[in-house]
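During the reporting period the student researcher (J.K.) took over the structure-prediction task from the postdoctoral fellow and processed the backlog of single-chain submissions. One of the processed entries is reproduced below for the supervisory committee.
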Amino acid sequence: MSAIAPDHIPARLYPVIDALCATGIDVALTIARGPLGQSLAEGVGENTGGDQQKALDVLADEAFEKALGPAGVKYYASEEQEGVLTLGDGPFALAIDPLDGSSNIDVNVSIGTIFSVFEAKDGAEESFLRPASEQIAAGYIIYGPQTGLAVTFGDGTLMFVLDPVTKVFELAEARMSVPEAAKEYSINAGNRRHWPGWVKSFVEECEAGKDGPRGKDYSFRWVASLVAETHRILTRGGTFLYTGDARPAYAKGRLRMVYEVAPMAMLIEQAGGMATDGKRPILLLTADELHGKQPFVFGCRQEVERVSELHG
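J.K. obtained the following structure tokens:
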């Protein structure tokens, strides 16, 4: 049985999206069982990027790896793996963060899976170290009160929601649009003392509210789950910032270009929003290594443009 209706999905990509959705359903059920199953939040080591791996990170990675080879994925690049795996001889290269936001597993906050699809090249790494504009599909699965799929194939951003009765992802919105009138911004305020001046300036303008240069009040948000942050911005607008800062290990922030930044940038741009590194469009940039980090600012076009003005 298919996990997602084939309408609105390019035929040649359908097996990949269906495999992602079917595996996502299994992951969602595992998350829903929480402590009734195995200890999902238990630390089991570190990944290549230095993040602590939780049991659910590894479980999700293994499940997606197993499912995607038969679906036409030749090269599989995971945030949880050191290098690219060759799964078969299919036409696609797929990058994935199997479980984004894993620090929130044990507090029941929305987490997710992020993915990006390219046409496979002859070489494994060269299939991913290329301009973000060459993605042919990108999206995420969010595991929360609803299990949803946001996906783009380069012609708008679609939203699907899992029907818990039929176990099928059904189309909920055919063309999402990032609202422009939002009054929210998202940044890890605990790092404020390390921020560059232009980031501080943007946040100070927001904090000044209707009495400041922006002339309106803003609300601050921070979830520590990129999927949850992106879902909120796609749904009701706002701005997200995770830039580089003064700490030695954070010169380019903490988000990975291949697994997180590039796919979310494509989703946001296809929904009419804007995604930059503070100045340059993300979709014009190229990852220089598989696990390389990338400063990231995205959301409502007007707000992101203001960030770029302050960046100078």
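The committee noted the following: Residues 172 and 179 are 17 Å apart (CA to CA).
J.K. will present the remaining backlog at the next meeting.
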